[in-house]
Design brief:
- With 110 residues, the protein is mostly helical.
- It has two domains: 1-60, no CATH class; 62-110, no CATH class.
- It has helices spanning 3-9, 28-42, 47-60, 63-81, 91-101, and strands at 12-17, 22-27.
- A two-stranded antiparallel ribbon has the order 1-2.
Length: 110
């Protein structure tokens, strides 16, 4: 089985990042989960329900997994703040992420 076939079988897809000249692997399950969250947040009146549900789910996670989750979120915020493209629809989010990205993000493995 080829590398690409293995990735596709695991539910991953590969794209080529032309700016950085390398292949990038995406997990399609995570992309699907993010789409569900985005769809719920986009539906008027469901933001509070979505946030309560997310917080409830995080609180049920093992403490180490919570730490890993917020380590990943910190990295998402940092990388999002460095992206080139934005417009007035996401300008405030981008500015906020830039400020948050400046904060020390030390999440020790315990």
């Amino acid at each position: 089985m080829t590398y690409l076939q293995e990735k596709l079988q695991k539910g991953e897809r590969i794209e080529y990042d032309y700016d950085n000249k390398k292949q990038v692997v995406f997990d399609t399950e995570i992309e699907s989960a993010m789409k569900v969250i985005a769809d719920r947040l986009n539906f008027m009146g469901h933001g509070d329900v979505c946030i309560r549900s997310m917080l409830g789910s995080i609180n049920k996670m093992h403490r180490t997994i919570q730490q890993n989750f917020f380590r990943a979120i910190a990295r998402v915020i940092k990388e999002y703040s460095q992206q080139e493209y934005s417009d007035l629809r996401n300008k405030a989010s981008k500015e906020w992420c830039k400020r948050v990205a400046e904060i020390e993000d030390y999440f020790p493995f315990i």
